[in-house]
Amino acid sequence: MVSQIVLKTLLTLTALAQATPANASVTPASHGYAVAEVQALLGVLGYSAGAVTGRMNPQTLTALSLFVTTHPGTTSLTSRLSRAVTELGAEKTPTPAQTAALAADLAIWPQFAQKPVSKAWPAWAAAAGLSSSSAWTPGDWLTLAHLSAVRVTRLHQWPYRAEAGDSWSQLAFAAQLPESAFSAANQVHGSTLWVGQPIHWTVSLPKPSAPPAQPAPVSSVPTTSAPTPPPSLPSTSGVYSNLRPVACLVWWNPNTAGVDGLLNAERHFHMAVDVAVTGQWAVTHPELIHRLAQAGNELDIGGYSGANLDQLPGWGVTQELTWSDQVLRRLTGSPANYVIFPETPNATVTTRAAQLNLTAMAANQVWWAPSPSRAAAWLTGHPNEILLFAGPYDQWPSLLARLQARHFVFETVAQIWAQQS
User: Fold this and answer.
1) pLDDT, tens only, 242-257
2) Which residues form the signal peptide (predicted)?
3) Which of 6, 34, 82, 145 has the fewest CB atoms below 10 angstroms from its CB?
4) Domain extents in the chain
């Protein structure tokens, strides 16, 4: 089901696409949920509209023009769009263009960003509550596109009204908020979700702010009376006093539950790793950002939306990095200095990062949830190199215990860069 506001926006933007050259130097200023939904919808229909950002850009305009060209006729654009969606229902497997669009949609969700589509899709579908998580169906593609647009809308705090087919559980999933707190913040019609009902994103944020179940009290707002966390490097006394750091570990796109385990393990073993986050993750987890910064973890940038920066045009790279830097500055009071990549970034990314006073760095090795023994062996055997953990990890106590037994001390990305310069 495509809502009337999306159809209206599609009509407006299509007129804009027909009137604006594809290589226009000025990007249209249109933004919001409807733009994000149009981008996502065009993607699953097989048109390369670019990443779902909710902001108009030349690539989306080109896709709109192509849609109009490939769906000619005297009928209204609404009818042509409806026909395209109906034709989508007859497809059995996604085309290469649709697969790319689905992968881009999945990349918006940090917990699925680094998995191949074949693994990310079933995991996402199960988390979203779809009935057949193992099958690729056009209806499910549309659900992914819609919830991806909703997620971007929530992250930017743009206005949104509930649409036909929306549910509390799926909207809460897209917003990455507890369903009970989310529905409690939107009780205009009691427990019933009405079509057209304005959705409130921020009212529910304070709801789950009960103190974490940890031995030490934690506050989302730093105070002078709070105990000072251990430094990121060991003190100048004790068994480590004459040892220099050995290698660097970066945790890229951390899982929320794993951060508590990391901080507890770091406090016990007096170690600190680098943590690379997307701007969106920082926006939705401000308390965890505060705690990581207070604990001495160097915070690096992993992009903003989770999109592959190598696949974005220059202006898109600048936008992603600027937003991420602004978020971390606001939350920590300090600028981010490094952008971390699993692989060597292209020249456009490196240049755009440098223009923002950011240094693009690539990992020497990337692993997904390695065993503690394997990770410890790699780190102690590769001095002055960067190991990147991609995605969820919950074996921090075991890993740090093994490293401490080997008299290991972490380097930071900043120290690695200083030695390479």
Assistant:
1) 344 478 999 988 888 8
2) 1-24
3) 82
4) 4-160, 247-420
